[in-house]
Amino acid sequence: MLIAEVINHLEDFAPIATAEDFDNVGLLVGSPNTTLTGILITHDTLEEVVDEAIEKNCNLIVSFHPIIFSGLKKFNGNTYVERTVIKAIKNNIAIYAIHTALDNHFQGVNRAMCDKLSLKNIEILIPKKNSIQKLTTYVPNAQADMLRAKLFEAGAGNIGNYEQCSFNIEGLGSFKPTSNATPSIGEKGKLHYENETQIGVIFPKHAQKNVTKALFSNHPYEEVAYEIVNLENEHQEMGLGMIGDLEQEMDEKAFLELVKQTFKTGGIRHSALLGKAVKRVAVLGGSGGFAIENATRAKADFYITADLKYHDFYKAEQKLVVADIGHYESERYTKNLLHSYLSKKISNFALILANTQTNPIKYY
User: Fold this and answer.
1) Three-state SS string across the chain, please?
2) pLDDT tens digits, residue range 302-342?
3) In the chain, what are the domain boundaries?
4) Which superkingdom (predicted)?
5) Fold match between 109-128+237-325 and 132-233?
6) pLDDT at 352
7) For a 10 Å CB count at each end of the chain, is N or C smaller?
8) What architecture does CATH give domain 132-233?
9) What is the pLDDT of residues 191-240, one digit of tens each?
10) Does domain 3-103+333-353 have CATH number 3.40.1390.30?
């Protein structure tokens, strides 16, 4: 197996095109054409993690956080980033980072947080914008069913809990093949009318390549008439953060204790308790100060995230409780999620959870 095959599995699950624009995801170090020896899954890639990969004969590190985030202008080993990359290159170890592609996934980082808290009625807190496109094309009536099926196979036509969704209008199309044409229907130099079906389907933006390939490969016409437009609709199953409900209301202090035990944090910084029961809970793994207002608008009683600044706690406005459980702690189940997914896809190679502790924050 090549490293490229592992990457294909990862990107089938969480396409890098769905990551945030500021992020640096994908294969950061190494060649996809290298033969795989083993996979080490980690939260962060550090020198110690590369050492563990060497020891365990793993030449691919699948990391949640990217070790290279901004551009590197030199490799002289002065920083932990440079030293890590140098050691990986010297030992022919590839590094793949998934980060916000997994943050935005409906079964990703935030879903793991929700599942650990047994939340129900789960929804995306901040649905992703500019991520849905619509294809409109025209095909002879006789081939409409076949073409629709191929477009669905390529990833088009899914809306929430529904699949194979399309809108179809029958009408009359016209065209006149020129002398250079090779028409499958009609004759050169003669105006032709054909009973056609207009097919409209939506698809996630990252699937455009597969959808257009299916269109061109299966359409009977030499020249395919089609249009693709970007939609303003938000993607209800892709985006940052999640919100859901506890099965039963809890006292605020009892809920804080549950959160502390669930995420194994050394301490929780939080805004003032409000003296009311907790039912609706919002979560956002990692740095989530920017989403406090979103949690408020969603009527959350509690918002669990990390990396909050002093003034972020004021934004609670006594409408909800804002809780900072720690960056690593909020994402601690991520590598287990990746291990579980890859274990179902790859069974004949070593797939190892890193033992190296990468949380840089200690509690006194």
Assistant:
1) CEHHHHHHHHHHHCCHHHCCCCCCCEEEECCCCCECCEEEEECCCCHHHHHHHHHCCCCEEEECCCCCCCCCCCCCCCCHHHHHHHHHHHCCCEEEECHHHHHCECCCHHHHHHHHCCCEEEEEEEEECCCEEEEEEEEEHHHHHHHHHHHHHCCCCCECCECCCCEEEEEEEEECCCCCCCCCCCCCCCCEEEEEEEEEEEEEHHHHHHHHHHHHHHCCCCCCCEEEEECCCCEEEEEEEEEEEEEEEECHHHHHHHHHHHHCCCCCEECCCCCCCEEEEEEEEEECHHHHHHHHHCCCCEEEEECCCHHHHHHHCCCCEEEECCHHHHCCCHHHHHHHHHHHHCCCCEEEECCCCCCCCCCC
2) 999 999 999 999 999 999 999 999 999 999 999 999 999 99
3) 3-103+333-353, 109-128+237-325, 132-233
4) Bacteria
5) no
6) 94
7) C
8) 2-Layer Sandwich (3.30)
9) 999 999 999 999 999 999 999 999 999 999 999 999 999 999 989 899 99
10) yes
Q: How far, in Å, CA of 129 to CA of 79, rounded?
A: 36
Average pLDDT value for residue range 46-72? 95
Work out the average pLDDT over 151-157: 96
If you search the block for the tokens 């808290």, which residue do you land on? 117
